[in-house]
Every structure is written in structure tokens, then in C-alpha cells.
Amino acid sequence: MPVINRVAEFHSDIAAWRQQLHANPELLYDVDETAAFVADKLRSFGVDEVVTGIGRTGVVGLIRGTGTSDKVVGLRADMDALPITERTGKPYASTRDGKMHACGHDGHTAMLLGAARYLAETRSFDGTVAVIFQPAEEGGAGARAMVEDGLMERFGISEVFGMHNMPGIALGHFAMRTGGIMAGTDEFIIDVTGHGGHAAMPHLAIDPVVVSAHIVTGLQTLVSRNLDPIRQAVVSVTTINAGTAHNVIARTAKLTGTVRTLDEAVRTQMEEGMQRLVPQLAKAFGAEAHVTYRRGYPVTVNAPAQTEFSAEVAREVAGEDRVNADVEPTMGGEDFAYMLNARPGAYIFIGNGDSADLHTDTYDFNDEAIPFGVSYWVRIAERALAAQ
């Protein structure tokens, strides 16, 4: 079953909503205008119940079908933008300096609004659809805030589905995989303490810069010589700060970076390995080093049954040859992981075509993807809540 005709009929309306959201981006939890826009639209569609303030500024709309089933399926979109100054030159470009929808959350929100409109009109399902509009995906863990605020229990959600646009995947195509599809996103800080001195007399000092250089090299062995080659991880040192003068050996140095993994066992292995390796490397030079390891978003793990189901639905919408059900995972992170930890579900990618990359100042969501995304959401709801 291809793109839904009725969805195609109000494609231009959804694109207009998307462009309005794009022109008025908001960051993290401060999405009050966006949340109000969403809530007003849901009420205008005749959604049965609209609840605001979930996870601070999240919005949930409940659409009840015509049957008697008490099953509830959740569909989630993110609402927040990024602290980037836009350079697209589009007529609907951001009107707010230093804020931009550079990841397509405007498109995600608009597509889910379009699905809510259709589902509220037709109600061709038995059960309840919960449309979830989440704040603070970009570093604020808004999904966790909504889960901790009782999202799943309060609305009785049994399964939850997410979708994200992806540049480089062709328009009208979908991609997903069972298991880890996006990485756990951890951060680390390494404080190295040596002994300062004159740069011309290094034998009288313990140089934390040299120690740091060995730590950077040594950290790579956590992947290359400690991790099973079949498994995956990334360890990147992204900043090194030490010293204030060209002729002075500093006393301290600070390194920061990120660790990306695709399953929790590897994540633990990387953390434990870093805590073991770094102090010993520093000790070998007579220095000291302390690791602060901060776990960020968990691995985004798709449940097998829901992933197979989402692939079947995507094939109905796009066609057999336009769905990749075993896409390579990405080392980017996604806080939808918190919802998938709370309930089984699946997270998929929808093609944005040959666009600029995510998180760049020239990126824009492709409005031609809207009918495919809305149709996917509708069919997920109708199929998951099919009358028995």
C-alpha cells in the first residue's frame, strides 16, 4: 500500500507547519512556543486528550479508535533545535540568531502532526495512539525526563516507535536494523598531574604533555587490542589543554573526549579499561592521572519483533526495494534510547535525499519526505492496533 492519498492532499499544510517551526526554533526544554503550537494543532484536529508539561515541556495527544481494545501505541517526535547560526538562505530560515533546526526536528514534529490529523479523522484502528512530542533531544535527555515523569505508565503505552530523517538515504526510502542502531554517547575528562619546570631542563620536571601524548596513544588500544574485532567502539580524544608559555613545562594537563559503543557490555568494558589503563600509564612516568567518566545517552536498541514489524510497514509504504532492514549502525547518539529501554519498540531512518549533513548550518529538512513519513506513522498505528 503506497503513500496515502489523503495524506498527499494535505502535504502542503504539513510543509507550511514545518516551515513555520523552522523559522522559530527553540532549544532544549525552552520549547514553549513549539509545544503550544503542537497542542493547539492537536486540539484543532479533535484529538481526544492533549496533555502538556510531561517532562517539563513535552506534549502527549491521545487518539482513541473505534474498538474496545485497551492497547496503546506511542509514536514519538522531537521538537528542539540546535545552537547554530543558519546559512541556508531559505525564505523560512531561522529568525532567531544562534538557533536553527539543523537536525530536522521541525520535520519530525510536522510529520507526526500530520499523522495525528489523519488518525483523528479516520480512527480506523482498535485501541489508542499516543502521539509524543518531546523536548531536549539535543543533549538535554528530554526522553528520559518524559519517561521519569511517568509517560509510559500514565498513558499505558505498550510499544513505542521513533523516526529520524537521514541525509544520504534516498528520498522515499527507509532503513532500520534489529539491535543497536545508534551509539551510547559517553564523555570523559582526564586530569594529569606532573611536576612543572623550565622547558630547558626537562630532567628536573615530570612533563604532563608527554604523559598526555602517551595516554592518547594508549587509549586507542582499548579498541585495537582489547575489544573483540567483531564488536565496535570509538574512543576519541578531542581536546588537550596544558601550559601557558613556550619555555615552561606545565604542572597539569587536561584531556577530554568521547566514547561511542553499540552495546552495553562494550560500553562497560571501555569505561573499566580506561579507569585501569590511564592511571597506570601516568604512573609509569611518575605522574598521576584521574579519569572522570560520564555516561550519556544509552545505546539505542531496537527490539526484534517491533523492528521486523516496522520494516513490513515501511515496505507497504515505500516498496520492497526501498527498505533496508539491516542498515549499518551509526555512532551518533539518540535519547529515544530511554524510551526503548522502558518499552519495546523500533527506531528507523527516513531518507532526506542528497541534502547537507545533519548539524550543519546549511542543512534543511526535505519537505518531499513528508508524505512517506506521515504514511508510515499512520500505517504503524493502524497495523499495530488492527481490529481482531
Can you lay out the helices and strands and say which pair or pack?
Layout (H helix, E strand, L loop, with lengths): L4 H5 L1 H13 L8 H14 L3 E6 L3 E7 L7 E7 L26 H18 L5 E7 L7 H7 L2 H5 L1 E10 L7 E2 L3 E4 L1 E10 L3 E2 L9 H17 L8 E10 L5 E2 L2 E10 L2 H21 L3 E7 L5 E3 L1 H15 L4 E2 L11 H7 L2 E7 L18 H15 L4
Parallel strand pairs: 3-4, 3-5, 5-16, 6-15
Antiparallel strand pairs: 1-2, 2-4, 6-16, 7-14, 8-12, 8-13, 9-11, 10-12
Helix pairs in contact: 2-4, 3-4, 4-11, 7-8, 9-11
Structure in words:
- The chain is an alpha/beta fold and 388 residues long.
- It contains eleven helices and 16 strands.
- The chain has helices spanning 5-9, 11-23, 32-45, 105-122, 142-148, 151-155, 208-224, 264-284, 304-318, 336-342, 370-384, and strands at residues 49-54, 58-64, 72-78, 128-134, 157-166, 174-175, 179-182, 184-193, 197-198, 233-242, 248-249, 252-261, 288-294, 300-302, 323-324, 345-351.
- An eight-stranded mixed sheet has the order 1-2-4-3-5-16-6-15, with helices on both faces. Strands 10-12-8-13 form a four-stranded antiparallel sheet, covered by helices on one side.
- A hairpin with a 3-residue loop joins strand 1 and strand 2 (58-64).
- The longest helix has 21 residues, at 264-284.
